[in-house]
């Protein structure tokens, strides 16, 4: 795991709508993705995790507006540049070839009236026009083999494949141009646990072989702990805690992270009463003042309702490697 | 248990029982099948036995497509069954509609997966609950009675104060609150059994436990029998007294939740448990890529002969491909069984080449 950054998100803000009516879906997010790592992004629905992913790839559909911030991409052998400042041509080059995205429902992401081979071919045709038809087919076959689908299924239509196979095709399609960054937006929620484990195992294997970085978005924190390097937790559009997966699991600092971790019944160990988190996720239109988690927080005290906590390194032994935004943990060094 | 009007009924009394329950869905026939004698069918549920008792939760665990929702719908009499029997308090029941169905629904209620779809968006919470109370005759005789019953229902599902929720529309509530309304609506019939078909899988992680704890609380206070259908075996362990595992339309293992999840006997149950995310097993996704039965469930139009799991099973034996396994006691805990030949001593012994049992088996095959 080299410490070299590949994608740096700085103070990213995303709104839906304009003016007073705007819903602030992502607020002041700072996040760095390093080369070759799996960064998990966890949060409930409405916490802004998908909006963040669409924002940084500039895929936001209209009422969504990026109102501020920078997304610095570091190509392998070139100068870093700001994705948010790219023109249409630059963006076309950046998307898929540098950063690919696997969407939530693979069932709906493939075109039902075209064969798999046609859809893989289209990607190559659009992004590498100089490639010959023969080498395009060869590349597509190779990619399918890589994700564990026998190449003789090339001429199948999406409905002839099972859910797990379609998801594999989507992953293969995302990797076909060998991007540096792959963003996966809940790629396995529609799948069974057995299939989920197979696909994730394969993804990890591919990452070791091809060396890309992954931003993995999900609401299943127990899954992330097991297979990502670092985890960032979002709540109400902000990142509330970020740490190494093990550190977050063993000793989470933010009460929301602790609550999320305590929401999964364990398969092993003693059976104990769990409570989940009381209340319901905040309405982005009427955010509570101060820390947006304070109405549900069991440890809320005086400053929580009035002031927004700053994200920064806490005053703990491993404080330099993690960040948290909570008044319980005074910040030594705020994140710029 | 003092709050319930039915608290006199002893806990553990059998409410609803399925015996050899089977459901085949016919497949649309094509022209070339015109002269075929046998008609294709999807074998969605085959020979399922389960018992719901008062004050107990039974979990039904399986992948999507394993037939677990079909079992719930059969028990709710939403589908006619192909074979087998459903007994309510020991009496065989088959209802199609009209009054008998209402009478049945009064005693057996269902909660659906998606609270966004199961509540009508153009009606208020008051309307939903009033309908349930009136249809099932629990609305009382005066407007005051009704008002009291409504408030009581909402209080039971912890939506307090009730006035704040009664005149809201479903879209004004969060997912967890909507599911609570759906539960309140089911309780409006004052049922004896609740069939909960993945009641929390559409909800946010942080509020799932709240709804499960509510259901458990209701089970205890109202002495309900609950069938909890889920794909998450960890939540079955947390919530249910008894767990049944289904694969490709058949029950493969059952017993009390603790022994099924801690000492899984059937290879499929082991696969399910190994596949569930476990934070204590950090970064070993690559280590356990051994053969644990990866692959996909079979087609249910022509399910595999013998054990339906045998094409994926790492421990499959010749007998598994031909003979349907019977329920065999595991012996580690009372009532823990698995439908797997691994627990039949004769079959396992036959695996050792040259053994007497193997010879016997060959002879037996020959004479058949």
Structure description:
The complex is a heterodimer of chains A (336) and B (368). Chain A is an alpha/beta fold and 336 residues long. Chain A has a domain at 103-177. Chain A has eleven helices and 13 strands. In chain A, the strands form three sheets. In chain A, strands 6-7-8-3-9-10-12 form a seven-stranded mixed β-sheet, sandwiched between helices. Chain A is globular. In chain B, helix 4 crosses helix 5 (143-156), helix 4 packs parallel to helix 7 and helix 7 (175-187) packs parallel to helix 8. Mean pLDDT of chain B is 86; it is low at 1-7, 355-359 and 361-368.
Main attributes?
heterodimer, A: alpha/beta, seven-stranded mixed β-sheet, four-stranded antiparallel β-sheet, 11 helices, 13 strands, 23% strand, B: 368 residues, alpha/beta, eight-stranded mixed β-sheet, disordered N terminus, disordered C terminus, ABC_transporter-like_CS (chain B), Oligopep_ABC_C (chain B), P-loop_NTPase (chain B), ATP hydrolysis activity (chain B), ATP binding (chain B)
In short:
Helices cover 30% and strands 23% of the residues of chain A. With 336 residues, chain A is of the alpha/beta class. In chain A, helix 4 (116-127) packs across helix 5 (133-146), helix 5 crosses helix 6 and helix 6 runs parallel beside helix 7 (193-210).
List strands and helices in order, with pairings.
The complex is a heterodimer of chains A (336) and B (368).
Chain A: E1 5-16, E2 23-34, E3 38-42, H1 49-56, E4 64-73, E5 81-82, H2 88-94, E6 99-102, H3 106-109, H4 116-127, H5 133-146, H6 163-175, E7 181-185, H7 193-210, E8 213-218, H8 221-227, E9 230-235, E10 238-244, H9 245-250, H10 255-261, H11 302-306, E11 312-314, E12 323-324, E13 331-334
Parallel strand pairs in A: 3-8, 3-9, 6-7, 7-8
Antiparallel strand pairs in A: 1-2, 1-4, 4-5, 9-10, 10-12, 11-13
Chain B: E1 14-26, E2 41-53, E3 57-61, H1 68-75, E4 83-88, E5 91-92, H2 98-107, E6 108-111, H3 115-118, H4 125-135, H5 143-156, H6 163-166, H7 175-187, E7 193-197, H8 205-222, E8 225-230, H9 233-239, E9 242-247, E10 250-256, H10 257-262, H11 267-275, E11 328-329, E12 337-338, H12 345-351, H13 356-367
Parallel strand pairs in B: 3-8, 3-9, 6-7, 7-8
Antiparallel strand pairs in B: 1-2, 1-4, 4-5, 9-10, 10-12, 11-12
């Amino acid at each position: 795991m080299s410490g070299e950054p590949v994608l740096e998100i700085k103070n990213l803000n995303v709104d839906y709508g304009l003016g007073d009516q705007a819903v602030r879906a992502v607020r002041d997010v700072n996040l760095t993705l390093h080369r070759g790592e799996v960064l998990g992004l966890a949060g409930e629905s409405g916490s802004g995790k998908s909006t963040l992913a669409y924002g940084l790839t500039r895929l936001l559909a209209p009422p969504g507006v990026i109102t501020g911030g920078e997304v610095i991409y570091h190509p392998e052998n070139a100068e870093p540049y700001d994705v948010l400042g790219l023109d249409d041509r630059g963006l076309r080059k950046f998307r898929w070839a540098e950063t690919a995205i696997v969407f939530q429902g693979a069932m709906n992401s493939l075109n039902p009236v075209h064969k798999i081979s046609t859809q893989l071919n289209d990607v190559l045709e659009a992004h590498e026009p100089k490639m010959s038809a023969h080498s395009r087919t060869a590349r597509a076959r190779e990619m399918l083999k890589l994700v564990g689908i026998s190449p003789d299924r090339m001429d199948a239509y999406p409905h002839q494949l099972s859910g797990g196979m379609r998801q594999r095709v989507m992953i293969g399609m995302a990797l076909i141009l060998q991007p540096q960054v792959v963003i996966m937006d809940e790629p396995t929620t529609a799948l069974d646990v057995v299939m989920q484990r197979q696909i994730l195992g394969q993804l990890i294997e591919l990452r070791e072989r091809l060396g890309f970085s992954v931003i993995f978005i999900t609401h299943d924190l127990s899954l992330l702990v097991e297979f990502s390097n670092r985890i960032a937790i979002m709540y109400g559009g902000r990142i509330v805690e970020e740490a190494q997966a093990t550190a977050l699991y063993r000793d989470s600092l933010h009460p929301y992270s602790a609550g999320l971790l305590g929401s999964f019944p364990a398969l092993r160990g003693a059976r104990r009463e769990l409570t989940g988190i009381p209340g319901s996720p905040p309405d982005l239109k009427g955010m509570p003042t101060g820390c947006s988690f304070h109405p549900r927080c069991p440890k809320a005290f005086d400053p929580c309702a009035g002031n927004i906590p700053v994200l920064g390194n806490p005053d703990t032994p491993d404080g330099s490697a993690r960040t948290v935004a909570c008044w319980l943990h005074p910040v030594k060094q705020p994140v710029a | 248990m003092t709050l319930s009007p039915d608290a006199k009924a002893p806990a553990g009394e059998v409410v609803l029982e399925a015996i050899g329950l089977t459901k085949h869905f016919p497949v649309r026939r094509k022209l070339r099948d015109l002269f075929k004698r046998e008609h294709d069918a999807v074998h969605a549920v085959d020979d399922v036995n389960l018992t719901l008792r008062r004050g107990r939760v039974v979990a039904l665990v399986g992948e999507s497509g394993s037939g677990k929702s079909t079992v719930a719908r059969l028990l709710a009499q939403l589908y006619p069954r192909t074979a087998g029997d459903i007994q309510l308090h020991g009496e065989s029941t088959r209802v199609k509609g009209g009054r008998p169905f209402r009478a049945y629904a009064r005693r057996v209620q269902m909660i659906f997966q998606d609270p966004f779809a199961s509540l009508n968006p153009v009606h208020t919470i008051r309307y939903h609950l009033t309908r349930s109370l009136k249809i099932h005759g629990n609305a009382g005789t005066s407007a005051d009675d009704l008002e009291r019953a409504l408030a009581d229902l909402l209080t039971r599902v912890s939506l307090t104060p009730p006035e704040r929720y009664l005149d809201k529309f479903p879209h004004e509530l969060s997912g967890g609150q909507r599911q609570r309304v759906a539960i309140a609506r089911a309780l409006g019939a004052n049922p004896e059994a609740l069939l909960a078909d993945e009641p929390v899988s559409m909800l946010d992680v942080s509020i799932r436990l709240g709804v499960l704890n509510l259901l458990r609380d209701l089970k205890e206070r109202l002495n309900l029998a609950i069938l909890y259908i889920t794909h998450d075996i960890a939540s079955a362990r947390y919530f249910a007294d008894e767990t049944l595992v289904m694969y490709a339309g058949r029950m493969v293992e059952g017993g009390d939740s603790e022994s099924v999840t801690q000492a899984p006997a059937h290879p499929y149950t082991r696969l399910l448990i190994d596949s569930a995310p476990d934070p204590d097993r950090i970064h070993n996704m690559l280590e356990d890529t051994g053969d644990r039965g990866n692959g996909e469930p079979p087609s249910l139009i022509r399910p595999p002969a013998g054990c339906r799991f045998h094409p994926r099973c790492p421990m499959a034996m010749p007998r598994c491909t031909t003979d349907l396994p019977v329920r065999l006691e595991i012996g580690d805990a009372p009532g823990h069984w698995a439908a797997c030949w691994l627990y039949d001593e004769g079959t396992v012994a036959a695996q050792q080449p040259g053994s007497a049992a193997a010879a016997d088996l060959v002879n037996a095959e020959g004479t058949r």
